[in-house]
Amino acid sequence: MLVRGAALVALDREGAGHEGVTILLTDDESVRELNARFRQKDSPTNVLSFPAPRNPEFHLGDIALAFGVCAREAAEQGKPLAHHLQHLTVHGVLHLLGYDHIGDDEAEAMEGFERAVLAELGISDPYAAGEGEHERPGPS
Q1: Which residues are CB-neighbours of 10 under 8 A, at least 6 positions away?
Q2: Number of helical H runs and strand E runs in the chain
Q3: What's this model's pTM, rounded to 2 decimal places?
Q4: Can you spell out the DSSP letters for 58-73?
């Protein structure tokens, strides 16, 4: 319910509330296999996003979260796992909506949107100083 709620808030805030998203919370090995197959990176990552082509069902795409990676990152960053999973879900949804963080300007826009959605969910700024050690989530 946590990740579903985060995805719905992100979609509604962007005006894409009618769009569908599939979210898979799985083990690190499954995400490693997906990362190797689709991104040629043979390692697990926290979140992967797979945009769907336009379709009559309004399915936006799929998101895969590696539970072990997410749990380790949350512990290392000193924040609740639930908050980290919600943040990464929002991050993944934004990738499905066309956001990216390759350049600094893009990253700032994406992070601003993430902050706004997370604030709506009652979650503090994941990038703020003093909130644990945070990095921008890796490319999805």
Answers
A1: 89, 90, 93, 94, 97, 113, 117
A2: 5, 3
A3: 0.88
A4: -EEEEEEEEHHHHHHH
Report the SS3 class of residue 117: helix
Question: CA-CA distance, 24 to 22, in Å (whole number)?
Answer: 7
Tokens representing 59 are 């399915």
pLDDT tens for the chain, 140 residues: list them.
789 999 999 998 887 767 899 999 999 999 999 999 999 999 999 999 999 998 988 899 999 999 999 999 999 999 999 999 999 999 999 999 999 888 888 888 999 999 999 999 999 998 885 444 444 555 45
Q: Which two tokens stand for residue 57?
A: 């069902």
Outline where DSSP puts E strands in the chain.
Answer: 20-26, 47-51, 59-66
Identify the burial level of 25 via C-beta atoms within 10 angstroms of its C-beta, where 0-12 means exposed, 13-18 middle and 19 or more buried: middle
